[in-house]
Amino acid sequence: MPSNTIxxxxxxxxLALVALTVMPKVVGVGIEDTTVTxxxxxxxLQARDQVTITSNRFDSGWFSSSAVIDVxxxxxxxILGALPIAVQIILDIQHGPILFTPNGLGFGLAYVRIIxxxxxxxxxxxLSQLPFDLPGVDIGLLAGFDQxxxxxxxxxxxxxxxxxxxxxxxxxxxxxxxxxxxxxxxSLSMGKLExxxxxxxxxxxxxxxxxTSSTSQLNHVPAPSSATLTIPRIAGGTPHPFTVDGISAExxxxxxxxxxxxxxxxxxxxxxxxxxEFPLNSISWTSEINGIQNHLFQRYYGLxxxxxxxxxxxxxxxxxxxxxxxxxxxxxxxxxxxxxxFNNRIAxxxxxxxxxxxxxxxxxxxxELDNITRLNLNTAIDALTVKLDVSLDLxxxxxxxxxxxxxxxxxxxxIRLDHGRILLNGSVExxxxxxxxxxxxxxxxx
Length: 446
Known about the structure:
Radius of gyration: 29 Å
Oligomer: single chain
Number of strands: 26
Distance between the termini: 101 Å
Number of domains: 2
Number of helices: 7
Largest sheet: 24 strands, antiparallel
Shape: globular
Structural class: alpha+beta
């Protein structure tokens, strides 16, 4: 019996050794076949026309491989005459299952050290003129057995001083994780950034930055997702010194309550404190857009792709104008035909008083409209419901340049006063305009 046990253990050990020996080669073959495809799969379908990924070179070994990939990104700025952003990515790949990472021994399909390099000669030349060396960038990617990808980013600090001033950058770190179900999370943390000119009060300081985001489906733009940004403090010197504290922003996409084919977007921006020569002390803005048709995102990216095609393959001015009009009219028609709801609230402190504005726009849509050029103004007004509520601190406004406008506007009943507040209430509904309770015929305005 002991001899059988020894034989079984020996066989298992031999199989494990063979697996550990053969698996790296199998992984290497798979990486060579799927590297570009996997990169493309990470890009949302609606944005793939803006990115070109080309495998320049791939050298495959038994336990490791190397590759060179060219990436060209053509954002919306291309139509303004800007050249695409061209980057060359060098990949140093270890084959799993046993991996040696900067954090120690790991297990997975592969570990990739990523070295990005600009392919723009003019930009490289400009960067080479900087008086300090660019910080080192360390990027690593771990491909797990569960189809997950984990990317780690580290940017080294900068501490440079000369006779003209100093620059301090406390480094940057980030992580990106995508899972087998295509969900993903991203986080970025930047340390202090400070620049100052010697012998003057000119300078800039950012205390740090935190950015996080997540999505339920990485390659689908309308998928439920969220993102948050926080900056504790930004300060600047002359000629207009300022200090801004408590900057935060949040954005969220979620499936609309009106149906699975629609998306709701909400955004929030808040600045807790502003100390400057200007009268604004704080501000908060919340915005919602409800009921966006999901295929509108596809039309939007299709419009961008069409615009880029016009730049890369220019036609005659007359032909280009016709094509551009056709491209832009399609998403506009989708917007006009379908219902949308916009809600906005702004709360601010200025001139030592608190103020607020609430604006709601409900566009009922014109489903019978088949051509945007046939949009009739009166029909559009009938399909529109707008509600506006403005509340301003009277004492604060009387300290502002708008003070002399208060009495004339009260006399003309554009605004009213109530317990130290300036109030304006307006609405457009069923083709009628109501301002502070008074009906105003719309034909007086058009």
